[in-house]
Amino acid sequence: MGAGEVLANDTAEETFCVARGGVDEKMLQAALDWACGPGKVDCGVLLQGKACYDPDTVEAHATYAFNAYYHRMGMAAGTCYFNGVAVVTTTDPSHDSCAFTGR
Hints:
Layout: H1 3-9, E1 16-19, H2 25-36, H3 58-72, E2 86-89
Antiparallel strand pairs: 1-2
């Protein structure tokens, strides 16, 4: 049984939607802008001085916004895609005082 099968069959496993590493930063920024705009994610925690500002990278901020959207949409199929720049993982991206929603 492959890892993908384990994830698909283990509903107790927490999942997170994160920015895919090594993708074009402009595509990540566009997806982040969508998530924080039309996607209606509250991205206030990404502002300077807030809990999820650091690290101040497009990838880190996109990961927060993608995961928030994914969970707000009930982890429905297709809600962690963002034109191919996001991926579902079981690795919790939370750090310091920046906590991510998982299930």
